[in-house]
Design goal:
This protein has about 550 residues and is α+β, with helices and mostly antiparallel strands. It has 18 helices and six strands. Helices cover about 50% and strands about 5% of the residues. The strands form two sheets. A four-stranded antiparallel sheet has the order 2-1-3-4, with no helix packed on it. A hairpin with an 8-residue loop joins strand 1 and strand 2. The protein is globular, with a radius of gyration of 28 Å.
Length: about 550
């Protein structure tokens, strides 16, 4: 018996089990994630006897019957269900209904408190409050009003967007309830887990523009600003390097599985390059009232050095990816290698990117990529390598355009949303490059490679999300809770969940791993606990504690 995962691109059949002489049956464990094709062939190699495709469900018991008639070539296969599988999505539905109910209750709570019966009950309970307590409450209210006024210039929608990204990231890192769509895609394609990091990079680009403009208004010299940016980048990269190589079993630095690149390092390097780009670019603003023929492309005209730099970077990525000769591998190969592509290139896991990373970092790169299980690869692949970092900078550049438009068209909400809509059209290039397919495009959407189609697709999605949050949070002044709390203290939540996330009470050793109930509860509990901690550090009754570097 052989098995083939239809999610893999042109993979070879893999041996699953052999029924020898004297055996009438054998038991195997199969994946319930994707549709599988089962093929039964004779041991002597006379060809395929029968085959069928089936999407198996979790914890189900199935029997595959092969019956052979008197004619040796007449073989039939049928599948029966011995034990009904579990409903894997019932825990997800229950969690959604509970969270939706809590959201509705929280949103309607102010209206409930303003109700006349509620006011009478409140007055009855608090009838004899002392004058001191009233004065204290007034002082606290005035203090909170002053703080709210001082923070009124802060872009709450960006904090909300950052908090949403961070919350999803924490949930995914806790296992996402054991669901495959909360894990990274094996190679091409997108899952929920693949969305988080591009959102962060986009937010970094937007924050760079806003922070740089604020420092320039304060009159900070460019040399002082550059020194501060460099120091912050070095500290953050060292923090990421230590956290990534941290293991309770091996000590603070696990030299046995040392890895130089990483998610945190890529974010910090992208931040550094974007800061340099903004520091040394011409500081020109878009004239709002002037009518010129180049108004539709004014961002490009007034900031042409930045655009030229990004075009050169993307040209470099395309040339290195598709033209760099790699020994024993086809030029421009974008596959996962292993058993993919009919097993023709087993040691060519995106060979151009891996070739550059191993030349720079040696073997100190990632040896357990997401494609290892599905494609049975034996070569390392660094998803946070050099080539991917180039397109990470391009993604951050899209975020910079969002920040520029938020500044240039401030107090002109329709102008901001219109410009966001213009940049959303860049997502059409993702459809062209991928041919609206997962594997058959010129450049497939691939988070492992940070391909050009992936960056343009995520850029469009980021503009959509930021535009929606800007309209709801900053324009309509609806609250961005609860995501605004971790969004304003992102470094603390990221560092805290990296160090303490897998200790009690954030997680525990699960006893019921054959279903998603406990796994999903643990993931939601750990995520909600970090959001609550961020809320406590933000709340007016406590000291405003924000971890900044």
């Amino acid at each position: 018996m052989y098995t083939l995962n239809v999610n893999a691109l042109e993979c070879l059949y893999q041996p699953l089990a052999t029924v020898g002489n004297g055996q009438s049956n054998i038991s195997v464990v199969l994946s319930a994630q994707f549709t599988l094709t089962l093929k039964i062939a004779s041991v002597d190699g006379n060809g395929t006897l029968c085959s069928l495709s089936q999407t198996f469900e979790e914890a189900g018991h199935y029997s595959l019957w092969m019956r052979q008639s008197e004619l040796l070539n007449d073989v039939t296969c049928s599948l029966t269900v011995d034990r009904s599988p579990n409903n894997a999505y019932l825990p997800l539905l229950a969690a959604f209904l509970i969270l939706a109910s809590i959201t509705v209750f929280w949103a309607s709570l102010p209206y409930i408190l303003r109700c006349s019966c509620t006011q009478r009950l409140k007055n009855c309970i608090c009838r004899r409050r002392s004058q001191n307590s009233i004065e204290m409450d007034e002082a606290i209210n005035e203090h909170s009003v002053d703080k709210s006024k001082s923070k009124s210039s802060r872009l709450k929608s960006l904090d909300t967007f950052r908090g949403l990204s961070l919350t999803v990231m924490v949930f995914v890192n806790y296992g996402g309830g054991g669901y495959w769509f909360f894990q990274h895609a094996p190679w091409n394609g997108l899952t929920v887990a693949d969305l988080v990091m591009p959102w962060f990079v986009f937010i970094i680009g937007t924050s760079v523009v806003l922070a740089f403009t604020s420092m320039r208004r304060k009159g900070v010299p460019w040399l002082q600003h550059l020194c501060k940016v460099t120091w912050r980048t070095i500290v953050l990269m060292l923090i990421g390097f230590c956290f990534m190589n941290y293991s309770p079993k091996d000590g603070y630095l696990s030299w046995s599985w040392l890895r130089i690149p990483g998610v945190h390092q890529r974010l910090d390097f992208t931040y550094f390059v974007l800061k340099l780009m903004k520091t040394f670019s011409p500081h020109r603003e878009i004239p709002l009232r002037e009518q010129n023929w180049w108004n539709p492309i004014q961002d490009l005209v007034l900031h042409w050095p930045e655009w030229i730099f990004i075009v050169l970077l993307e040209t470099m990525w395309l040339c290195l990816t598709f033209l760099l000769p790699v020994p024993n591998c086809p030029t421009g190969y974008l596959g996962a290698g292993g058993i993919g592509d009919d097993g023709l290139y087993p040691n060519c896991t995106e060979r151009a990117a891996t070739y550059i990373d191993r030349w720079l970092f040696g073997d100190n790169i990632f040896w357990y990529p997401t494609c290892k299980v599905l494609y049975c690869t034996t070569e390392p692949f660094e998803p946070e390598g050099v080539l991917g970092t180039i397109n990470s900078i391009v993604m951050g550049f899209f975020g910079m355009q969002a920040g520029k438009n938020l500044l240039f068209f401030r107090k002109m909400n329709k102008g901001i949303l219109a410009r966001f809509h213009t940049y959303m059209k860049n997502g059409i290039s993702a459809a062209i490059l991928s041919k609206c397919t997962r594997d058959e495009g010129f450049i497939p959407v691939n988070k492992n490679l940070w391909s050009l189609s992936f960056v343009t697709c995520m850029g469009r999605m980021s503009f959509v999300l930021l535009g929606v949050m800007y309209f709801t949070v900053d324009v309509k002044e609806w609250c961005g809770q609860p995501f605004i709390y971790p969004g304003m203290n992102s470094i603390f939540v990221y560092v805290g969940h990296s160090l303490l996330g897998f200790y009690f009470p954030f997680s525990w050793e699960m006893r019921f791993q054959d279903s998603h109930w406990e796994q999903l509860f643990q993931s939601i509990w750990g995520t909600a606990l970090w959001v609550f901690i961020a809320y406590l550090l933000y709340h007016k009754k406590y000291i405003y504690i924000f971890l900044k570097i």
